[in-house]
Design goal:
The protein has 115 residues and is α+β, with helices and mostly antiparallel strands. It has a domain of 62 residues: OB fold (Dihydrolipoamide Acetyltransferase, E2P). Helices cover 21% and strands 37% of the residues. The chain is built from 1 helix and 6 strands, in the order αββββββ. Strands 3-2-1-5-6-4 form a 6-stranded mixed beta sheet, with no helix packed on it. The longest helix is centred in the first third of the chain and has 24 residues. The chain is elongated.
């Protein structure tokens, strides 16, 4: 009986900690879906950006997105950056909900240091 109780307490604590960790990271990419929209995701390299437009080139080709004041921008969105874009379609327009810059991957060191 004691072992079952200890196992139940351990599971409850693990669940509480993992839930808190998930809740802390869940708002990294805010995606708001309305009743009539479907959220899409794409990844690519920023080709051009200004106040109202973002052009991304990825495996799906060149895609243009409308940036609004509600568009969440996470990281330094600039030409050449690799980004993830969540968006919905409004007619033929792609309206960006969030643009998240992917972190740089550091290349392996070529120096042979003994340390």
């Amino acid at each position: 009986m004691r072992n079952r109780f200890a196992a139940a307490v351990a599971m409850a604590v693990t669940l509480a900690i993992s839930s808190a960790a998930f809740a802390a990271t869940a708002d990294v990419v805010p995606v708001v879906a309305t009743r009539h929209s479907r959220i899409h995701l794409t990844k690519g390299r920023v080709r051009a950006i200004d106040v109202t437009r973002l052009v991304v080139v990825g495996s799906g080709g060149r895609q243009s997105f409308v940036l609004t004041p509600e568009t969440e921008r996470i990281g330094n969105v600039r030409v050449g950056a690799t980004v993830d874009v969540s968006y919905h379609k409004d007619g033929k327009e792609r309206i960006a909900s969030a643009v998240v810059v992917r972190p740089w991957k550091t290349p392996p060191s070529t120096s042979r240091s003994p340390y």
